[in-house]
């Protein structure tokens, strides 16, 4: 009988492409929860008075509530965070405050804009390696609380290296470099930005975001008296209703000193406060716990590029991840 099964297995074509990705295995890494806070404008939005550790604590509380998983079942937590001073201390304190047992370990990862994604990758890889069965990935950032400490003075050797010095340049400079090097016109940038705002407006009005946004408690602090209160935020507050390309074309350049001055406050990414959480585990564990499976994590690819045009990083990473998943 075993010999027959081996022959049948040998004759059965091995799935490739999409069929292989969709094939289910008990060892698959699956996502059973994916939630986020509303995304709010830094310095003036709903979370402007809410500290990073407070965002973390609230996100951990929501993860416990929405995951339908006993927090003691979670075997590791990774938090993606960039700006927080003492980020690991804050993450550990927030997890304990929210209700995670002290037996649940935690770490942080910083890969700038992709830090939250790297937290997901870190947990997924640990599950694939058999180190854990259940893990939680969180991404959090308070741009309002950015200490703005800047980059410390570099060594003489680094200062003499052009590409190394480029690492410390502002993102507005790199944006203008990309626009100039790749001939991205102001009109194309504003057209893309307008379409993005229009899609966000449609999603907000029709409830497309309702399944991912969870109500979030924010702090409100009076700078004069120090008095503190709370309120609940339920919606993104950075969507600009009625945005058009024609309207964006009227916005003045934000960085006229660099390149062609195509980047503006209308077509640049919003400076944002917010948080998100993803629960991952082996498929067999999810089925054992009776959890709904939202998706399957396949793989992640990272790639480097010249710091002066760091915005094109996905151009290199996407082909790599598609090749790995083929």
UniProtKB/TrEMBL annotation:
GO BP: fatty acid beta-oxidation; phenylacetate catabolic process
Any GO CC annotation of this UniProt entry: peroxisome
Pathway entry: Lipid metabolism; fatty acid metabolism
Segments passing through the bilayer: none
Keyword tags: Transferase
CDD domains cross-referenced by the UniProt entry: thiolase
Thiolase N-terminal domain segment(s): 29-284
GO terms, molecular function: acetyl-CoA C-acyltransferase activity
Reactions it catalyzes: an acyl-CoA + acetyl-CoA = a 3-oxoacyl-CoA + CoA
Name the record gives this protein: Thiolase N-terminal domain-containing protein
């Amino acid at each position: 009988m075993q010999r027959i099964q081996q022959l049948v297995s040998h004759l059965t074509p091995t799935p490739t492409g999409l069929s292989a990705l969709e094939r289910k295995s008990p060892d698959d890494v699956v996502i059973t929860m994916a939630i986020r806070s509303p995304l709010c404008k830094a310095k003036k939005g709903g979370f402007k008075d809410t500290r990073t550790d407070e965002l973390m604590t609230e996100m951990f509380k929501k993860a416990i509530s929405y995951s339908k998983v006993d927090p003691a079942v979670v075997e590791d937590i990774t938090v993606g965070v960039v700006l927080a001073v003492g980020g690991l201390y804050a993450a550990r304190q927030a997890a304990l405050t929210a209700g995670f047992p002290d037996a649940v370990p935690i770490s942080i990862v910083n890969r700038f804009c992709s830090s939250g994604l790297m937290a997901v990758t870190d947990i997924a890889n640990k599950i694939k390696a058999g180190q854990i069965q259940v893990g939680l990935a969180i991404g959090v950032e308070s741009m309002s609380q950015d200490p703005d400490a800047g980059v410390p003075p570099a060594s003489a050797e680094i200062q003499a290296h052009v590409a190394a010095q480029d690492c410390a340049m502002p993102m507005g400079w790199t944006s203008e470099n990309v626009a100039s090097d790749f001939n991205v016109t102001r009109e194309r940038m504003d057209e893309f930005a307008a379409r993005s705002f229009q899609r966000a407006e449609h999603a907000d009005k029709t409830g497309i975001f309702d399944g991912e946004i969870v109500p979030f408690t924010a702090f409100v602090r009076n700078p004069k008296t120090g008095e503190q209160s709370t309120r609940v935020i339920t919606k993104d507050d950075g969507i600009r209703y009625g945005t058009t390309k024609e309207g964006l074309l009227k916005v003045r350049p934000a960085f006229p000193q660099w390149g062609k001055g195509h980047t503006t406050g209308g077509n640049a990414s919003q400076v944002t406060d917010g948080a998100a959480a993803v629960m991952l585990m082996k498929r067999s564990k999810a089925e054992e716990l009776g959890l709904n499976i939202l998706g399957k994590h396949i793989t992640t690819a990272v790639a480097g590029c010249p710091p002066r045009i760091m915005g094109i990083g996905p151009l290199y990473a996407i082909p790599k991840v598609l090749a790995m998943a083929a």
